[in-house]
Design goal:
The chain is built from twelve helices and 23 strands. The chain has 452 residues and is an alpha/beta fold. The protein has three domains: 32 residues, no CATH class; 207 residues, Rossmann fold; 172 residues, 2-Layer Sandwich (Ribosomal Protein S5, domain 2), CATH 3.30.230.10. The chain has a nine-stranded mixed β-sheet. It has a seven-stranded mixed β-sheet with strand order 17-18-16-15-19-22-23. The protein starts with 6 loop residues before the first strand and ends with a helix. The chain binds thymidine-5'-diphosphate and magnesium ion (MG). The site of thymidine-5'-diphosphate has 15 residues, from helix 3 and helix 4.
């Protein structure tokens, strides 16, 4: 093979040249042209040690990865229909939120379905875990229990025991003797996760890594763990509330926006099959500033109460306090209300809250947020038995959102009879709900509050 002729490239504009030059004649930059290795070095140039990989067609009928149901519907849904063999799952959450409880219950349930399960705790002694199991009424479950932090020993044990599912609680406590930094450091967490994920793939063992979340809301240590695993689940909830939400934020084996809803009871976590009823259970008489948003979480409609409080501010810069919603979204909606509807919030403190400790991320909540804000400011309650949904654009127009039919069905199921939705929403046939469709925020504010 003839040697490829040298190749020169300008670092400033990317133009290629056949010979070196002090000045690139394409862009005029000085001293930017240098010689580059030809791109097509080929396997011979790399030492010829590669091996040919198997290439298959997109339509080859390899069977879908087998899934195992946990017997806990709320968990199965978040996993995309059950546990996939050989998959790696990260479960993140604040300390004390209930991760260990959830995973102990899940492992016991998987064991009940015939899987061989190991639960390795790096944080608690076996006696402590056993005590918790007793409290949860799981003493009889066939779960192998271990307390260890040395990953070399854990991997050797996994090799010998040949489990189907291993829970590592938590990844921050694990350490590898080949890595010279302390457990919990980025290097250790990364190396330990890599070892465990590689093991999972090679042996077809499902591995669940528990990860603590820092105050900033990130899995302590590395975001890289999130890239290594197939599925990332967050376990969240407010301290003062019993509700716990297991949220899929990444899933290579299923949809990534599903949630599972649980309630923390004296005997562990109980499934909540009808979250809307739960989130609305604390609702009393309709008051100004409180509205019901018909939302979607993945494939499931969830109704939540959005509450706003608006009060004169003693501060130079009024407060904007948000719980359960994006604060950037609040700023946007306040700006649209001021610029398009002539409803200013200057000099007013604004508090916005999703009741029950739920977190709403859908833009479809915009209209409900705006309604709660104006309702609080004008001290006028939204008509009772009404749900709202719709996205607000910067122009003040209301945009239809997906799954309108499902939202309305859920609202009707919970005893609501009216809905306010953007113009052009696809209502579907035979809805029992009385739906008022509105084109923009100004007409909404005018009709409902007689303001703007
Ligand atoms: P835990 O699972 O230890 O949290 P994590 O592993 O995320 O740190 O849960 C701790 C909390 O859960 C603790 O404050 C007590 C509460 N809890 C109950 O309310 N009921 C129960 O049955 C159990 C086991 C725990
Ligand atoms: Mg724990």
């Amino acid at each position: 093979m003839s040697k490829a002729s040298p190749h020169f490239v300008c670092a400033s504009c990317g133009a290629s040249h056949t010979k070196w030059a002090g000045r690139c004649d394409a862009c005029g930059a000085w001293n930017s042209v240098s010689q580059e290795e030809p791109l097509s070095a080929g396997p011979k140039a790399m030492g010829g040690k590669g091996r040919s990989i198997v290439i298959s067609d997109l339509d080859s009928d390899e069977p879908a990865p087998p899934r195992q149901s946990s017997g806990i519907d709320e968990l199965d849904r978040v996993l995309g229909g059950g546990l996939v063999r050989g998959s790696a799952i990260l479960v993140g959450g604040d300390p004390g939120i209930g991760k260990s409880t959830l995973l102990l219950q899940a492992t016991a349930s998987f064991a009940g379905q015939g899987l061989k399960c190991l639960y390795i705790s790096g944080e608690e002694a076996t006696a402590q875990v056993r005590m918790r199991a007793q409290r949860l009424g799981l003493s009889g479950a066939k779960v192998g229990l271990g307390a260890e932090t040395n990953l070399r020993d854990i991997l050797t044990t996994m090799d010998a025991q040949k489990p189907d599912l291993v829970v590592i609680d938590s990844i921050q406590t694990m350490w590898l003797d080949t890595v010279e930094s302390a457990p919990g450091s980025v290097a250790q967490v990364r190396a330990a996760s890599h070892e465990l994920v590689t093991f999972a793939k090679k042996r077809g063992v499902a591995v669940v890594l528990v990860g603590h979340v820092t105050k900033e809301g990130q899995i302590a240590g590395p975001r890289v763990v999130e890239h290594m695993v197939d599925t990332v689940l967050y376990f969240e909830g407010e301290r003062g509330h019993q509700f716990r939400i297991l949220r899929a934020v990444k899933n290579r084996f299923g949809p990534a926006d599903e949630i599972g809803v649980f309630e923390m009871t004296g005997a562990g976590l109980a499934q909540v099959h009808n979250p809307s009823a739960l989130f609305l259970s604390e609702r009393g008489q309709p008051v100004a500033g409180s509205v019901v948003f018909a939302g979607m979480e993945g494939t499931r409609p969830v109704l939540t109460e959005i509450q706003a409080l608006v009060a004169p501010s003693p501060l130079g810069t009024p407060r904007r306090t948000v719980v359960g919603l994006d604060s950037g979204r609040l700023s946007t909606i306040l700006a649209v209300l001021e610029a398009r509807c002539g409803i200013p919030f200057t000099g007013l403190d604004v508090f916005l809250n999703v009741a029950g400790g739920m977190r709403v991320t859908e833009p479809a909540a915009d209209l409900a947020v705006a309604a709660a804000l104006v309702s609080a400011r004008e001290d006028v309650a939204i008509p009772p038995e009404t749900v709202l949904f719709g996205e607000i654009s910067l122009s003040g127009a209301l945009r239809p959102v997906g799954q309108t039919e499902n939202r309305l069905k859920e609202a009707a199921k919970l005893g609501f009879s009216k809905a306010i939705a953007p113009k052009g929403s696809k209502l579907g046939a035979g809805s029992e709900m009385q739906v008022r469709q509105m084109a923009d925020l100004t007409s909404f504010v005018g009709e409902i509050f007689g303001a703007g």
